Amino acid sequence: MAQRSQLYRSLLRRYDIRRTAALREAEQRRQAIYHRLPRVEEIDGQLRLLGISTAKAVLQHPEAADDTVAQLKQKQQALQEERTALLLANGISPGEEKPHFQCAQCEDTGFVRGEPCSCFTQALVEEAYAQSHLQGLLGGENFDRFSLAYYDDAPWPGERLTPRENMRRVLAACQTFVEQFGRREENLLLYGSPGLGKTFLCGAIARALLDQGHTVFYATAPALFVQLEKEQFHDGEEEEPEGFFEELLEVELLLIDDLGTEFFTSFTASRLFALLNTRLLAGRSTVLSTNLSLKDLAERYTDRVASRLMGNFTALKCYGEDVRLKLRFGQKD
């Protein structure tokens, strides 16, 4: 995992290495042609000298600049035609010694007229995906595919809004979170019974921000705390995790799914508090999903963790009938 700026710098280094390699290989091909056809090297030397001598002539006799430039073009054309004929006669493509860039548009610089090339933008997104732990996990999760039709549009016991009206509000809050990401400090807590789309919405948030090139890290709570425990109590027999906790602190968006399903210990509570508190102080966003109620969360975790969750997270309650079952049997209201 890395911050967007770190990904950006890393990608720039890769582009620089790629461009340097293309230029080096082109020079090797050019030298091979020179070795085989010395006349081509002579022509290239003459072409370079023509440009220098013409520039001097124009400076010394500006009144004759047009004639001088016309003579230059005529000589250049004759030399270029001879060069091309020599190459073709020996079975060599005239463009053989030119650099073979992976992107012809930006010539492997990553930029076109000072703006990021489309290949650079795409590479940045792909790198963010690779580091998110979401590859292979994301299916069709995006906001456009989130259907409210599977949620009841009838009163729900103890709630002011119907499940459909409520999920419309939850969906809008998640979309606003993405739209204002980076401009407003916000954290989300999606909670409620299983099968109501919390994980789907987490995936939709992740996909939208990854497509913008932001750095995202996703993990289920059990997997996350197992990895943190391995780092904390590393016994030297396996490869040591390198700064996993620090990386969790630095990523732009941290998504922890199924909070409350992890094996709970005092270590879990302390790591969760440190993680949430440090990210809050740094102004970095976190999204949590849980099947626990707010009351259960407060009882399960320490007062310090509960305080951060209740005071610094926008709580989005999900309720209604299990949507996964409706999806399985193709039921809609």
Structure notes:
Helices cover 56% and strands 10% of the residues. It contains twelve helices and seven strands. Strands 4-5-6-3-7 form a five-stranded parallel beta sheet, sandwiched between helices. Strands 1-2 form a two-stranded antiparallel sheet. α1 crosses α2, α1 crosses α4 and α5 packs parallel to α6. The radius of gyration is 31 Å and the shape is elongated. The two termini are 42 Å apart.
Quick description:
With 333 residues, this protein is an alpha/beta fold. It contains twelve helices and seven strands. Residues 237-241 have low confidence and may be disordered.
- What overall form do the CA principal axes indicate? elongated
Distance between the termini: 42 Å
Largest sheet: 5 strands, parallel
Q: What is the radius of gyration computed over CA atoms, rounded to a whole number of angstroms?
A: 31 Å
Strand content: 5-15%
